[in-house]
Amino acid sequence: MRAALLVAPKKIEIGEMTEPRVGADEILIESSRFGVCGSDVSFYLGHRVAPYPFLLGHEVFGRVAALGDGVANFEIGQRVIVEPNYPCGVCAFCRAGRGAICPDKKAIGVTAPGCFAALFTAPAEFVWQVPDDISDADAVVIEPLAVSLHALWQSRARMGDTIAVIGCGATGLLLIHAAVAQGIRVLAHDKLADKLTLARQLGAVIVIESGDVAPLWRDENVTTVFECAGVSATVELALSAAPRGSQVVLVGLSASPASFIPLRLVREGIRVSGSMIYDHPADFARTIALVKHGILQPAQIVTDTLTFDQMDRALQLASTGQAGKVVVTM
Question: How far is CA 265 from each of CA 160, 236, 240, 242, rounded to the nearest angstrom?
């Protein structure tokens, strides 16, 4: 089968791989569309080490090609997506419904081979049927939408509130889309004008490219600040500019130290929390329902669609930070 293999930093080769065998309780999926994620870009640029050659990818939409023994409730040809993080299901966090932070979870395209190939197998427990009401274009963006919704749902933001979103990449844009749909007013911040244009199109009422945001956020009564850029500078911005009594939710994955003044956070009652992917299985089910009923249309953030032979170009484009969501078709 055809596969897009990362053979070295910034080098993707389209080649042949042995077709995966379908194990018991697994589903073989014929891939149709892929989403390119920031974690794929991190491996592509060499910021994270991979056991070359490595199969990237975790956002996939396709059709059921074969069923393993014991798999029920699926049919050949059915449209499906995959929840690509597999919590162990038995640790204390999983038993408490917090599989997102399971220390033993398996993540395809990160800790295990990914899905950028013609065929891909996944445990049936983590394969989701795509309702007819959902388009192929929306289906491939459901996984990152679940990430943004998880962050919004675990925050204290409610209908009628005003929130600030720092970083208008895919996660930030989807969070803006979801918040606006739930009656939340959004202020967006990014250093790129094109990203802010997308944010405005999704319903952000104020977009900020640069400058001191703290006075504006105070005047606008911002209740929650979402940091979605994933760099230390924006983490520091979120913590230093958060209004009194507000909440800061760290969604981006910055690995660099960030400084802040603990006294201010304590004295002004600023709550800081992190949001990691989503919890299995509730978050995916709720996300699919919101798209099925037309409340959310995540494909709005897709700015570029390339073919499988252009996978290297797709990763290059995503790595510039200029695009919204990059999608690859098989």
Answer: 24, 12, 9, 9
Homologous superfamily (CATH) for 156-274: NAD(P)-binding Rossmann-like Domain (3.40.50.720)
Q: Per-residue confidence at 313, pLDDT binned at 50, 70, 90?
A: very high
Domain covering 2-145+278-329 in this structure, CATH number: 3.90.180.10
Give the tens place of pLDDT for each residue, 115-129: 999 999 999 999 999
Separation of CA 308 from chain center: 21
